[in-house]
What does this fold into?
Amino acid sequence: MKEKPFVFINVAASADGKISDESRKQVRISCKADMKRVDMLRATSDAVMVGIGTVLSDNPKLTVKAGDLIALRMKMGKSRQPLRVVVDSRCRIPLDAEVLSSEAETLIAVSQAADEEKVRLVAKKAEVVRLGKDKVDLLALMRHLRERGVEKLMVEGGATLNYAMLKEKLVDEVSIYYGSMIIGGNLSPTVVDGESFKIPLKLKLIEWKKLGEGLLARWKVIY
It folds into this structure.
């Protein structure tokens, strides 16, 4: 068995590489065509993963929306919805978060530093795994997901999780939809936040095309 799933990051950014403004609240960047593409990506993935920052700022459901795509998943022998995964080292997830709904299975990855009582409450609504001392051990999480049958993992950010996954060399591909807008702001989050890589990661362009009023680019990550 492979050590980890096939992992790809999918993100929408402005033409200047921002995924939100200083408020870090959701900014609608994707066009209708891109939203349909994202729904298809979710439908063909075994799991969809985000960081706790995305849950706190956007409160996403992380589910497949289109009925025909749900039917396609079931025809392929998959569950009705992909597994939802949240990287949440301190278990800060609100108990009323959309991602904890009964619409799909959810796995919350926490560290040993997470509050015991909060973990107990969250465990009533989702599967909780402890991996790592102060922060979630992402490689251990990838192994855990692969062992439970996840072969294709879609990472929907945000910027901090994207950085951590790339730093640990766990990402196979990166897809970015560049919307027809400029957000600006030196404090606005980008596709990948965190410290700069001492040696920039190399990418090989696999695909690029016009999509709606924006541009879609897909790269293979070269380590």
